[in-house]
Amino acid sequence: MWIEVILFAVASFWVGLSGAMVPGPMLTVTISDSLKKGSRAGPLVVLGHYIAEIALMILLVLGLGWVIKSEMVTMLIGGIGGLMLIYIGYTMAKSPLPEEIPVDSEPVEKRGSILSGIITSVTNPYFYLWWATVGWAFMLKGIELAGIIGVLSFLVGHWGADLTWYSLVSFFTSKGRHLLPGKRYKIIMIICGVFLVLLGAYFIYSTLIA
């Protein structure tokens, strides 16, 4: 059984990694936060993502999985989520240059990265779609395989993929932040912000035509 559990964790890791590597709002926020705060931003954003996932898993376990498949809920998620992403993108594009960021703002910065991880997760319709299909299927398979140990095996693999990828992104991004002063830094922040605005607009558009 233990060999099957380990293989299940490995499979969960690669499935999670394939999803984590897809460009999206969480990746964009990780890059922008890493430029300002350093390599610790990635793990903090992922921590916020974990919090959102734990909350969603609790709903699924309580038998409310049908809610995230509701057409009304999908419309609300797409509309409100799109607006939130547009707001985040706008504030990101308007963010100050590195020399304008207060040195004594570290506690606020840390809290901001975790909150960004939560927001970019719960406002992304594909987050719910993934958990309503792939994620829920893996959880059920884990339960069938080894009960709670099987579920933990899935989470270790899935969460390990998120932490590994976004930590690497954050590390390499932060190493280059001192090479991006002034206008170059601002250009990257604007590009990231515009990407989120366009993604938010797409969410709203896809909701209206659904």
Any overview of this molecule?
Helices cover 81% and strands 0% of the residues. By secondary structure, it is mainly alpha-helical. Mean pLDDT is 80; it is low at 100-110. The protein has helices spanning 2-20, 25-37, 41-61, 71-93, 106-122, 125-146, 148-175, 182-208. The chain has one domain (2-208). The termini are far apart. Helix 2 crosses helix 7, helix 2 packs antiparallel against helix 8 and helix 3 runs antiparallel to helix 7.
Please give the structural blueprint.
Blueprint: H1 2-20, H2 25-37, H3 41-61, H4 71-93, H5 106-122, H6 125-146, H7 148-175, H8 182-208
Helix pairs in contact: 1-6, 1-7, 2-5, 2-7, 2-8, 3-5, 3-7, 4-8, 6-7
Number of helical stretches of at least 4 residues: 8
Share of β-strand residues: under 5%
Radius of gyration: 18 Å
Mean pLDDT, to the nearest integer, reads: 80
- Give me the secondary-structure category: mainly alpha
Shape: flat
* Strand/helix succession: HHHHHHHH
Regarding quaternary structure, how should these chains be classified? single chain
Low-confidence stretches: 100-110
Query: What number of domains?
Result: 1
DSSP strand tally: 0
Q: Could you estimate the helical fraction of the residues in percent?
A: over 70%
* Termini Cα gap: 44 Å
